[in-house]
Specification:
Strand content: 25-35%
Shape: elongated
Radius of gyration: 25 Å
Helix content: 25-40%
Distance between the termini: 69 Å
CATH topology of the largest domain: Nuclear Transport Factor 2, Chain: A
Structural class: alpha+beta
Strand order of the largest sheet: 1-5-4-3-2
Number of helices: 9
Oligomer: single chain
CATH architecture of the largest domain: Roll
């Protein structure tokens, strides 16, 4: 009976080890891809990637993107950081939707590096997955980490401060206008916009906006569009004290610090 159980156990182990035949090869590819990212060898990285790749960003609200966007994402990290290094806590085999091993690779770990502009150190924990095609190239990839936290911690900030002096009794009308599709949602969708915060001071009837942009150059392109091609600010004018003078923009700003 003991011999029978041992044979049965050995059979299970043998089947388990051979039910995921591509995993070891794909694991080597995944590890190589991460190491090449660390030395910023983009061309060698792309040799491991299918032109049909679908990539899932950690950016809130983002959708799957294709090869060109994936390449730009890699370039962005290479440009933004020096001394990039990934330390894996685990390399794990992945499964398909039915829970069957499919040769894919998952990993938990930590990225470190130094932002080239701010000099701040990256310490980013997260989870990443890679799926592979029949040729062993990466055909799907996804990032799961706190993108906003990373950005706030290490990236430079190009902040724009805006004050809007609102007429008495027009608070809600102004807030509704800014929340409409043509308002702040259009602003944050504009090229170069990272995000906006809004608050209203009831004592002074002043609405405060703080915008964060990739660069002040991109903000000025946006501002020129708002002032000369778009009519949204004209809709705000009747709600502001002093008309157009009720809108005060402060930019560029320097010496940003966080405490």
């Amino acid at each position: 009976m003991k011999k029978l159980l041992l044979l049965f156990s050995a059979a299970i182990i043998f089947v388990s080890c051979n039910s995921n035949p591509d995993y070891e090869k794909n694991l080597a590819t995944a590890i190589s891809f991460f190491e090449l990212h660390g030395v910023e060898d983009l061309d060698a990285q792309l040799e491991l990637v299918s032109k049909e790749i679908e990539s899932e960003s950690a950016l809130y609200g983002s959708e799957m993107v294709g090869y060109d966007q994936f390449v730009e994402m890699l370039k962005g990290y290479h440009d933004a950081f020096d001394n990039i290094k990934y330390t894996a806590q685990n390399w794990l085999p992945g499964t398909n939707e039915e829970g069957q091993l499919d040769g894919s690779v998952r990993t938990y770990g930590t990225w470190t590096g130094t932002n080239v502009v701010t000099g701040k150190e990256l310490d980013l924990k997260g989870y990443w997955y890679m799926n592979f095609d029949d040729e062993g190239k990466i055909v799907a990839q996804g990032d799961f980490f706190d993108f906003g936290g990373m950005f706030n911690a290490v990236y430079p900030k190009n902040l724009v401060f805006i004050q809007i002096k609102v007429k008495d009794g027009k608070k809600q009308e102004m807030i509704d206008l800014l929340n409409s599709d043509r308002g702040i949602p259009t602003t944050v969708a504009y090229d170069g916009a990272i995000g906006y915060d809004m608050a209203y001071n009831d004592e002074t009837n002043i609405l405060h906006l703080v915008g964060n942009w990739e660069s002040y150059e991109k903000y000025n392109i946006y501002l020129n569009w708002r002032l000369n091609e778009d009519d949204f600010i004209k809709q705000m004018v009747p709600l502001m004290v002093g008309g157009e003078s009720g809108l005060v923009v402060s930019q560029p700003n320097s010496n940003y610090q966080s405490f």
